Amino acid sequence: MALPKRIVKETERLMAEPYATLLSAKPTESLTVPGISAVPHEDNLRYFDVEIHGPTQSPYEGAQIPPSPHSHAQIRAKTNICAGGIFKLELFLPDDYPMTPPKIRFLTKIFHPNVDKLGRICLDVLKNNWSPALQIRTILLSIQALLGAPNPDDPLAADVAKSWKEDEQAAIATAREWTKKYAQP
């Protein structure tokens, strides 16, 4: 069964974007937000391996990381994206996409009030606020933004949210420790 044109176009755009900054005529003209890559599986283009780098000045940023020998390494090397902790996610586009949101979850262990132990994400655009006008890119940008602004008032991981509310600095320290321990290539 052929993929819908929408999925093909979004995939092409996702694959082109990591290199957009390099190909831009003006160095200041950036067509993409650094720190996100999505690579479709060769055998099923509805499945994507995703990497999201933690935003700088957040508990999820990491140290400078040299490229590793896997599918996202070339993207990191060519775009010089190494500032944040590297979080791996899996994304699946259901048969009724874009009428229903993509299924996405963290594979990397993360200490975050809006991500549970199974990697499921509490994000309004993945649930009640989904619209067929949204695209994969929008969802990935929203997840990256969530890393920069955890919301313990709308948690998926109640224990993490509780620790975030009771002692935010200790929770941030734990998030940094987990990022250092788990969010590396």
Uncertain regions: pLDDT < 50 for 5+ in a row?
A: 19-31, 64-71, 74-83
Mean pLDDT: 82
How many strand units?
Answer: 4
How far is it from the N-terminal to the C-terminal residue, by CA? 34 Å
What gross morphology would you assign? globular
* Rg, nearest Å: 17 Å
- Count of separate DSSP helical elements: 6
Residue share in helices? 25-40%
Going by CATH, what is the homologous superfamily?
Answer: Ubiquitin Conjugating Enzyme
- What's the arrangement of strands in the largest beta sheet? 1-2-3-4
CATH topology: Ubiquitin Conjugating Enzyme
Provide the domain count.
Answer: 1
Identify the CATH class: Alpha Beta
Largest sheet: 4 strands, antiparallel
Helix and strand sequence: HHEEHEEHHH
- Strand-residue proportion: 5-15%
CATH architecture descriptor text: Roll
Active site: 122 (glycyl thioester intermediate)
Protein name: Ubiquitin-conjugating enzyme E2 13
Organism: Metarhizium acridum (strain CQMa 102)
Keywords: ATP-binding, Nucleotide-binding, Transferase, Ubl conjugation pathway
Question: What's this entry about, in short?
Answer:
With 185 residues, the chain is an alpha+beta fold.
